[in-house]
Amino acid sequence: MFRETKNGKCLIETRYTASVHKMRSRIASFIRRNRWAPSVTCECLMAAFVISVWIAPNRAIVIFAGVGFAAACLFWGYSYHALKAANFSSLDHLHRRQYAETWDTLASSPEEARAAVCGASDERNLRLSAHRAVNNIAELVGIEADDRVLEIGCGVGRIGLELAPRCQQWTGADISKNMLAYAAHRLSQLGNIHLVHLQAANLDAFLDSSFDLVYLTNMFDHLDQLDRYKYILDAFRVLRPSGRLYVDNTDLESDDGWTSFANGVATMHDFERPPFQPMPATESELKAYAKRAGFLEIKAHHRSPLVILTATKSQLST
User: Residue 72: is its pLDDT beyond 90?
Assistant: First the structure.
């Protein structure tokens, strides 16, 4: 029986599409967990094809073996794309809060580390991808020559390379040792940088009132909500009086942000939800964190697909 939904599509079609997505996701998940399967399958079917031609030159048998070999080639091709889409990283066994394991896996080589932070593996596109974030930070909270700046989740130093020359000292903190190793290489020519490995999702490594500016860009999306608030609390502690905070996140209320979120709903399932899957936020959520942490001058700026939070620590804070 065909019954139309509100958007005019037949219910049976919607169910069929969902079933196809589910099947494809399960196949991709299996391949990423069992990387040996494509090569072993191909080799076995190739051997069967050769043997059938060699010892039993029967047309029906040869045709059957040939069809099997062709199917194996198609399976191999699908496997390649499934692994490529997963950044050649098997992450199905990790939970969302296993941040270090997740990002160390995604940053198993310099090329994969660059791709994980900007979607492109070459240095040129990595540099280009930083421009928007750098401009937003400079415009909305400012970068002063005597600032001591902290970036939480600095990755490979994508933003740090551009901002460090503008301030007195730039500190990059990350929970991934691999990311920090590549950041050290990229930033080696700068004399005012300091890289810190975070042992957990907090800023316990830093003293109170140590920085004039704390920022997080392209990082909040990947955090559990409790850890989001914990980082805002810690940012308040390590900021000096009148210190500034900058946080950006995919905006759930923007058209682009909602589209990304809806695509995730359509394609991801409980058995396969990558721990790095971006999770959007709203203006109200970010403002609530800043307000409860004690910040003043709390503002939200909508620059699709981002919602950007800026806030200031009181001059009287200690």
Answer: no
| Closest residue by Cα to residue 98 from 175, 173, 151, 204 | 175
Parallel/antiparallel/unpaired status of strands 211-216 and 169-174: unpaired
CA 117 vs. chain centroid, Å, equals 7
Q: Which fold has domain 99-312?
A: Rossmann fold (3.40.50)
The contacts of residue 290 (CB under 8 Å, 6+ apart) are 232, 245, 298, 309, 311
Q: Residue 183 in contact with residue 161, Cβ under 8 Å?
A: no
- Non-local (6+) Cβ contacts of 266 within 8 A are 18, 21
Domain boundaries, the chain: 11-85, 99-312
Task: For 187-232, write each residue's pLDDT tens digit.
Answer: 999 999 999 999 999 999 999 999 999 999 999 998 988 999 999 9
Count other C-beta atoms under 10 Å from residue 159's C-beta.
25
DSSP class of 223: S
Residue 303 three-state SS: strand
Smallest CA-to-CA distance from 219 within 178, 175, 254 is with 175
